[in-house]
Amino acid sequence: MEETSDSVKDPKGIQKMEIKNSNKNDIQTIFKLYRVATEYMKSKNQVFWPEFPKELIETEIAEKRQWKLVIEDQIVCIWATALSDELIWGEENNAPSVYIHRIAANPNLRGQNFVKKIVDWADDYCKNNDLRYVRMDTIGHNQGLINHYTKYGFDHIGTRQLEVTDGLPDHYNDGDAYLFQREVRK
Predict the structure, then answer these.
(1) What pTM does this model have?
(2) Would you state the CATH architecture of domain 6-183?
(3) How buried is residue 105: exposed, middle or buried, by Cβ count under 10 Å (0-12/13-18/19+)?
(4) What region, left, alpha or beta, does residue 29 occupy, with left being phi > 0 and alpha being psi -120 to 50 degrees?
(5) Chain-wide mean pLDDT for the chain?
């Protein structure tokens, strides 16, 4: 994936938000945000993330698939992307899409609509790369997250029990995959 940056500025020209690729210097912060998100999932009795291998994050960074949302030089949200997700999406993987995984935000900044910012960014990313859909998944029935994704225009297009999870993080063994997609806004 090609490195991009998307900045939003207020009328005075002061930078408020920037979306760009993560780099190796961000690894400690990425893992901190994953740990905080995992503890939150546990507190809500949801399927939670395992400790992700450092090699996974390093590969995503090298392939420019690990992203960060920065406000005033502080990483406030991270996520990963893929252009293919066959193990989760099966035959439906053939539609030109960007797949968003592992959104984790600074818990002190909840309520800032980071998912909306990511979805808006993903629309632009798709337009620039001739992709048709933005897709996401979650493991296990998490009604709060389902409501959150549908609020931002995603359709819950099905639930799938994954038969092959080799090559996926361990939490994909802990429940059905709930699949979401939205067509890119023109």
Answers:
(1) 0.89
(2) 3-Layer(aba) Sandwich (3.40)
(3) buried
(4) alpha
(5) 91
